[in-house]
Amino acid sequence: MRLNPIVKKDIKVQSRSMRICWGVFAYELILALVFFLAMAIIQQESAYSTNNIYSRLVWLYPVLAVTQLIILGVVVPVRTASAISGEKERQTFDIMMTTSMTPFSVIMGKVMTAIVQSMFFVVASMPVMALSFVIGGMSWSYLLWFLAIALLVSLFSASIGIWCSSLCKKSISAVIMSYGLYVAFFLGTMLPYIIYQIAESAAYYNGTVTTVTGYSYGENVCLFWLINPAVYLVEFFVEVMTGESFVSQIPNIGTGTLQTGGPIRYIASGHLWMVLSTVMFVAISILFLWLAARRINPIKKHGAKNKA
Amino acid sequence: MLQINHLYKNYGKFRAVNDLTLHIPQGDLFGFVGPNGAGKTTTIRIVCGLMVPTAGNIMINGVDAMTHQKEIKKQIGYVPDFFGVYDNLKVREYMDFYGSMYRMTSREIAKISDDLLELVNLSDKKEVYVDTLSRGMKQRLCVARALIHNPALLVLDEPNSGLDPRARVEMKELLLNLKSMGKTIVISSHILSELSEMCNSIGIMDHGNLVTAGRIEDVMENVFGSNQLIITLDDGRETAVRIANEYAGVKVNSVGEHEIKLSHTMSKAEIAKMIGTMIANDVVVTGFHKQEGDLETLFMRVTNQEGGQENATQSNC
Predict the structure, then answer these.
(1) DSSP label of B129
(2) What whole-number distance in Å separates Cα of residue B68 and Cα of residue B54?
(3) Which of A145, A242, B57, B104 is the most exposed place for a label (fewest CB within 10 A)?
């Protein structure tokens, strides 16, 4: 298989700079601090408990994993947000677009570089992560699941960044826009549910409805959470640690049937939420990549207006 | 080689390129001349597939550049006016990177990049970081990069801007070398004296219009009229004027103390015969030469004529 030339070049160029060394150092440092903090809390709690301290070490897994995913979610958009706009600022973009590389190959090259770099960090953290498996007795398969989730988070973050990068001329604008979009995914998808809850409560206090616990199709606004990265991560780790679905434990959602409450009743049960959510994140990522490729293609509009 | 047909480019209501039709034959070194904002860079960017025209089409070796981008990209090497380089990348790696972007194998790249670096006189800089090269070296490296996939057409947009005199001479020599290898080269520049030394054909653009184009001699003749001849002499001025007027197609423009300027449509043999007749009639001819119109005068004359047409280039769309 032929390696994308952009990936090869970017990794070579970036590995020669001190930035990558400082990046790994900062990443490991944060993980070490989180690890020691978590250990201290576990130790303190064990002093008042008869449970074995080692069984509590499994909690290092979600703590360290979530820490890493948050770092990836913050760092990866910055890397890709400056990918295309950086080429434009450096005045190398035009030359790149006159080569045989297709716009999609260019975009994929930049995204792959960001993903490979994020995997450098994740792999570097494996010894620390392994503690919860060796001492805490967790199944090793969860390590693979974590890698898969890290890959998905990297892809999603990178695709947001690269789309913003294709839109903006300046890297700084692209970075700000990426974070704005990221926040929109976190908070924007929560908004319909919050509005629904406020409306429900208002109706209850006004006496329009007598109960707020009944089944309602209105609760299907929670389907927006399928594309909420925070809900996705919480759902994954709650399921791993407790064996239960987080979404189904939200009042009124986990009970009832498709007929009485709409699709949310069905989707929130079992693993279906995770599967659907994963598919949607991959689909959104592909959409962003496609939009970015379309955006940087200089001849995309040909034929649309061929009149002098 | 390159055929541009009725090319238009509008930016909103402003028309940057207006009905540009141009043919550049294989092996030509074509100079694109024009003041700032004339539409040269826009045209070049459209040719290189970096911009969509509002109307018109471009054919390169008979292939439509708009509908066959993949094939066209293999045929064009582009050197922009301003370009950057990557930090922490060596000259050899720079060539590798762009070679692999044309889907060339490592072996192919190694072979051709060695030859190209030698051609641009950078063989000894292979292991040097690109960002440490001088501006002139970077420009030559950019030409080598543009040739990595052996394109039929090399397009250079203001390649000499920002270069010192020595680097300009080196660039000129490089381009002449490439021309002798049979490459078709399109070069835009403000430095007209250099273009006149390098190019065998030119196109002058002004306010989006192609004012004139063709082989330099033909363009000169079209603009300056018939050929100019200057005869210097020590004695026999009246006789010389009388003899010159006896030849058909000769017009004496000015008569100085030791110099006669005339325009003519004669062949070289007829000129020799006329000079011979003068000498036989005791005119002391000390020399004669063809008066060359220079590109700068040509450019000024052509663009001044078109200057009044500025408003005509505004789009009515």
Answers:
(1) B
(2) 17
(3) A242
Q: Does A21 touch chain B (CB under 8 A)?
A: no
For A299, the closest of B55, B69, B84 (CB atoms) is: B69
Task: Please answer yes or no on whether A100 and B51 come within 8 Å at the CB atom.
Answer: no
Enter the pTM of the model.
Answer: 0.80
Chain B residue with CA closest to A105: the answer is: B101
Interface A–B counts its CB contacts (< 8 A) at 92
Question: Would you state the structure tokens that stand for residue A46, as one six-digit string?
Answer: 């064990």
Per-residue pLDDT of chain A (308 residues; tens, 9 = 90+): 678 999 999 998 888 888 888 988 999 999 989 988 988 888 887 777 766 667 777 788 888 889 999 999 889 988 899 889 888 888 889 999 999 999 999 999 999 999 999 998 888 888 888 877 777 667 778 888 889 999 999 999 999 999 999 999 888 999 999 999 988 998 888 888 888 778 777 777 776 655 544 455 666 777 888 898 888 888 888 888 887 778 776 655 544 444 455 566 667 766 788 889 999 999 999 999 999 999 998 886 544 444 44
Tell me which residue of B69, B85, B26 sits closest to A99, measured CA to CA. Answer: B69
Number of Cβ within a 10 Å radius of residue B226 = 14
Residue with tokens 């030698």: B118
Interface residue B90 vs chain A (CB under 8 A): no
